Model the fold of this input.
Amino acid sequence: GVLGPWTCTALVVGNIIGSGFFLAPTALASFGGVAIVGWVVLSVGAMCLGLVFARLSRVAPETGGPYAYTRLGFGDFAGFLVAWGYWIAVWVALPAIALGATDYILYFVPDLSNITGATTSVALAMMIGVGLLNLRGAETVGLFQLVIVAVKLIPFLAVSLVGLFWVDWGHFKPLNPTPMSFFMALAGTAPFIMFAFTGVESATVPAGDVKDPRRTIAFATVTGTLLAAIIYTFGTLTVMGVIDRDVLAQSNAPFSQAASVMWGDWAGYVIAAAAVLSSIAALNGWTLLMAQVPLAAARHGLFPRWFCILNSKGVPQRGIMISMGLSVTLLLFKSLASSSLLGVYEYLIDLSIVTFMVSYLFCCCVEGLILMLLGRRIGFLNPKVYLPVAGTAFLYS
Done:
């Protein structure tokens, strides 16, 4: 294995805190204080899901993560369904991540939005560049991920924690500004927040490249999810507390706007740069995972054999190229068919989140089976403690 505990944690954090988070305050602006309650409630669900994956990785540390666990619990057919759905979810998510990054690039070059096809071209260039990097092997990808995530976390922790001193609590009155009931409004926040938390399973997928997978994957999954939950909740709280709701609803770069209100123009540019780096880290991490699930399924004869052909660096090159080709085609098709960037982004989120949640549901069921059948024989699996956790993760999904 070439991926250690901190590299795996960077993979989890990099994949969870991609670009979904940076547009979230704008998408959730109309929900007001309900959005903060949504982050807190769904963070608990995401942590339970993280614990499910942490424990499954100790039972069966195999390449393929959700696919491997589902096949272990329910056999080839269920395994194939999860591999197929998860693979689609990842290559559908890549254009959404790349488009999220272009919004922050516009912060530096606003005139770019006036040039037809410019934002799509930038998104394409980022996706293809990261795809080429992934052909160099897991060690190169892991090192790149560790450096980028370490750099990007500093400004986001500053906004999320130091920024709380600038919050105007009057922005959260009334708590629910929507015409809906509180619970309906809370449900309305769920797709964006849950999309932002996809990736909790990231360390489980490349298990074949991980050092001491039983310990490393569990540590990375729990640490990464907890760190993301803290940044998400307090980051959204700061942005909503600094920018007026009506202004926020129109913002293309809410975190940069909040930083420049608090500390001046220079801070806005620092945050915009961190957001672009963050999106590149997410593209890098998801591209690594995108070929690993078909690779594992192909080894068991459930996907075509050419998905498990490796190049000299041990990378499933054909798998990456086929998947990236589908991502690029989808981005071009949706960009031509839709005039609104946020419209394309929301469509890709809806499509991706449904396919991710199916794989999460199966993994929660496998966890329940293992706890009930093997719980007493495996020391770290106590059914009394962990069945409620698996149940919460199941309801979340």
User: Anything to note?
Assistant: Residues 265-299 form the longest helix (35 residues). The radius of gyration is 20 Å. The mean pLDDT is 86. DSSP finds 15 helices and no strands in the chain.
